[in-house]
Write a sequence for this structure.
């Protein structure tokens, strides 16, 4: 079995950026016809979401303008192609990899619909090889960034001297529902932002970076109702059950400890926690669970604060922070995210 290493993580952001304090007056105007208690509750959600600012593929005024699913999806398709090409180009340039050296390309997105998928456009945009292996990951939500790591790892373990790229691009702003006053839509609007990331991995002998030691998925039985999208005439309508943090808490020991034990280590051996910031309540739940074990997820909170939850992209921004540091050789890192299904994806790294 070949050793797989993460060589680099690059990130790219849309040009439009708004601080939460700038968005709140727009939210107040949007909710002007609603009950006063409800309006106050929603504003408190925005103020307490732990998100200082977020980036978007469209300006805030455009988000709060009535438009069809087709119109929003057209913007999504146009902008994710740009962001995807830009972040892949940046990552290849950073690593001094030629575009024709890639053997495997995984694209990750769940916030719009594109057929052909993003990877087909990237092959043309960056003149990738005609025999490159493509894999679009389209319906795994926030967990899909880690899913991409798992799929790339399995491909590279089975194939020596190969290179893979994961390109995750998400635009939750394109899924905002103007006439949906459910709490799921309110929470979604308060925490989500847009962004892109690219991870380069290699099974070459001279590859550098942390090794992927192990990876696993964990499916929560009878939990498909907890998270996802309903496909409505107005677009992708958020499903977000308030029970999610408690479900994560209930399953947490089963998710973390057996996975580490299979690899002959314990949580005490893991120094770096690379956790997806799903939202403030999920972050607080997991922070408390890890805190009892003497660990912190400070980088997760900082990514949430700076960018919001960018669905599958977000955990890769957390990973990028660790990749930018000089981490001692032999240190372990645990990558963890949750997403629709309901599922938990885990990757064990060693520097």
């Amino acid at each position: 079995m070949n050793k797989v290493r993460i060589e680099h993580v690059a990130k790219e952001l849309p040009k439009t950026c708004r601080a939460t304090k700038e968005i709140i007056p727009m939210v107040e105007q949007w909710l002007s016809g609603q009950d006063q208690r409800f309006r106050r509750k929603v504003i408190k959600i925005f103020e307490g979401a732990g998100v200082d600012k977020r980036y978007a593929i469209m300006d805030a005024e455009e988000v709060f303008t009535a438009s069809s699913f087709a119109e929003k999806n057209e913007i999504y398709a146009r902008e994710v192609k740009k962001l995807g090409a830009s972040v892949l180009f940046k990552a290849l340039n950073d690593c001094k990899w030629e575009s024709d050296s890639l053997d495997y390309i995984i694209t990750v997105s769940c916030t719009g619909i594109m057929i052909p998928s993003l990877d087909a456009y990237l092959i043309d945009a960056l003149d990738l090889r005609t025999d490159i292996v493509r894999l679009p990951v389209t319906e795994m939500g926030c967990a899909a960034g880690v899913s991409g790591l798992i799929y790339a790892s399995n491909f590279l373990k089975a194939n020596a001297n190969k290179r893979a790229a994961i390109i995750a691009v998400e635009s939750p702003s394109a899924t905002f529902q103007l006439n949906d006053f459910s709490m799921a839509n309110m929470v979604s609007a308060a925490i989500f932002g847009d962004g892109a990331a690219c991870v380069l991995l290699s099974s070459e002998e001279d590859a550098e970076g942390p090794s992927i030691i192990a990876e696993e998925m964990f499916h929560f039985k009878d939990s498909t109702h907890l998270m996802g999208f309903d496909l409505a005439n107005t677009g992708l309508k958020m499903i977000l059950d308030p029970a999610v943090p408690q479900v994560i808490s209930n399953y947490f020991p089963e998710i973390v400890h057996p996975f580490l034990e299979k690899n002959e280590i314990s949580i005490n051996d893991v120094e770096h926690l690379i956790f997806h910031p799903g939202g403030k309540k999920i972050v607080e739940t997991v922070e408390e669970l890890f805190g009892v074990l003497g660990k912190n997820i400070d980088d997760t909170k900082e990514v949430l604060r700076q960018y919001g939850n960018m669905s599958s992209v977000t955990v890769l921004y957390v990973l990028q922070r660790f990749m930018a540091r000089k981490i001692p050789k032999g240190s372990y890192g645990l990558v963890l995210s949750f997403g629709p299904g309901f599922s938990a994806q885990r990757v064990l790294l060693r520097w």
